[in-house]
Amino acid sequence: MRYFPLYMDTRGKKVLVCGGGRSAQLKIEGLLSSEFHFYCIAETFSPEITALQKKYPERISLKARHLDEDFVFFAYDYVIVATDDYAVNAALIRRAKRLSVPVLSTENREDSDFRLAYRIEHGPLSVSVSCQNPTISRKIGEALRPHIEQFDAEKLSLLNRIRACMRRKRQKNISEVMEDLWTNESIQARKFLEEIDETTPGHKGQPIGAHTSTEHSEDL
């Protein structure tokens, strides 16, 4: 698998967007749920991108200037190339690769170092769908969404808190505990959290049968 799905930290990361049309707009919209900051450069910007900048002024910056094959950039974490000029796109992609800056090409997917997937977010649960076809990925994602939203988001959050607390206490058998609590009602997870987490109101101490270890759990 060349393009491997993973989650990365977007806090404080800067994305250079070269282009001001619909392709650039769609990529920005697809990344707005992140914490990326977008720096957009184009000769002109579509009304949709201008509206996005007004809605998210702290996240999106626009600079109107002509882009050509000699345009030089640096100090960006990612680059999205989305102009309507093939030669300019090719030059920008080559420059990004020389600088080892991950680049996404809206014109030729094979030139891209990363791709965007359709995302379904439900509480702490995030599911990505990609079939190398954005339109069909979206259709599949829309079909999956009702099934994803059947999961108990509150219970997922409780289990995440329990797991974090168990790892902090170096407790063993985290995976087994997670599986057991997952198959039980949410009330069991709440009770378990009260037993194990000293920051939870009603904390009663370490749960019966819990084991501590100086080693990290196998559940990472």
UniProtKB/TrEMBL annotation:
GO biological process terms held by the UniProt record: siroheme biosynthetic process
Catalytic activity: precorrin-2 + NAD(+) = sirohydrochlorin + NADH + 2 H(+)
Pathway involvement of the protein, from the record: Porphyrin-containing compound metabolism; siroheme biosynthesis; sirohydrochlorin from precorrin-2: step 1/1
Start and end residues of each stretch annotated as Disordered: 198-220
Top-level taxon in the UniProt lineage: Bacteria
Keyword S-adenosyl-L-methionine recorded: no
Record keywords, A-Z: NAD, Oxidoreductase, Porphyrin biosynthesis
One function term, GO molecular function aspect: precorrin-2 dehydrogenase activity
Keyword rRNA processing: no
Entry EC no(s): 1.3.1.76
PANTHER family: SIROHEME BIOSYNTHESIS PROTEIN MET8
Protein name (Swiss-Prot/TrEMBL): precorrin-2 dehydrogenase
Lineage: Bacteria, Bacillati, Bacillota, Tissierellia, Tissierellales
